[in-house]
Amino acid sequence: MLEAVIEAVELAGEGILSVYHSDDFGVEQKEDNSPLTKADKLAHNILVEKLEALDLGPVLSEEDANIPWETRKSWDQYWLIDPLDGTKEFIKRNGEFTVNVALIRNHEAVFGVVYAPVKEILYYGEKGKGAFKRCGKGEVKPIKPAALPTVDGQWRIVGSRSHTSADFDAFMAGFSNADLVSVGSSLKLCMVAEGSADLYPRLIPTSEWDTAAAQAVVEAAGGIVLNWETKETLRYNTKDNILNPYFVVAAEKSDLWLNK
Questions:
Q1: What architecture is the 155-258 domain classified under in CATH?
Q2: Number of neighbouring beta carbons within 10 Å of residue 147
Q3: C-alpha–C-alpha distance, residues 141 and 135, integer Å
Q4: Spatial strand order in the sheet of 108-116
Q5: HSE of 152, CA atoms in CB hemisphere, 13 A
Q6: Which pTM does this prediction carry?
Q7: Nearest CA to 114 among 237, 12, 205, 40?
Q8: I want to staple 215 with a disulfide (CB 3.0 to 4.6 A). Which of 80, 91, 225, 231 is the partner?
Q9: Digit-coded pLDDT (tens) for 174-198
Q10: Any residues with CB less than 8 A from the CB of 111 and at least 6 apart, and which?
């Protein structure tokens, strides 16, 4: 399964790059006013074909999300994908976008692959089997989160490049000694998974396909992705809409940030 999914995301990445290096992105506006490009559609078609061939469950994609709750609520296993996470970053041509593929089992992200085509960086993780990173065609290396800083230590906090909120600003005000790094797409979660960031508070809305693949990587690496209100693990396909609650990503629970 791993080899097949990696092949699929790399093929989707090639398709995305063919549009990325062209003169026409074919940008449209979806009903929620978010952008849609030729690359989103191309990657969607590639991934759906490859994943359906694995016969491990249905596919729910950002670009084909109109599957009724009455159908979805009976799923105990399915693929949850974002063919091009970070379309705004794609349009800006800053390279900070990813292909996200997750396998959801009983509301839990148990396997995930995140691929950044421009950067040629691949992350993947599976429950109980660890998380890994590969740069280009280089060696595959295991990853894990860094130990959290002390209360007075230098915190590396990652935030969205294209979105912010008053809640996020208020959270940041609780840290007197922090470096804020702004990054696009699911790369933010992967930075915590690999130990290059300490904390990622997401205090604005996201959809389930934005987080599932990278959550699987974070948790396989030994980190946590928690619902900000309940402090319980973020779960999937539990209600009729696909919006996530606010959440936070870290190596572990700690009073140093839980009470911020």
A1: 3-Layer(aba) Sandwich (3.40)
A2: 11
A3: 9
A4: 59-61, 77-85, 98-105, 108-116, 121-126, 130-135, 140-142
A5: 0
A6: 0.94
A7: 12
A8: 225
A9: 888 889 988 988 999 999 999 999 9
A10: 1, 5, 102, 103, 124, 125, 126, 127, 216
Closest CA to 210 of 243, 250, 161, 240: 243
What are the structural domain ranges in the chain? 2-142, 155-258
Q: Which two tokens mark 126?
A: 């599976």
Contact 258, 231 (CB under 8 A): yes
The type of residue at 66 is N
Lowest pLDDT segment from 28-37, 165-174, 205-214: 28-37
Domain 2-142 listed as CATH 3.30.540.10: yes
Which pLDDT tens digit goes with each residue over 51-103? Answer: 999 999 999 999 988 899 999 999 999 999 999 999 889 999 999 999 999 99
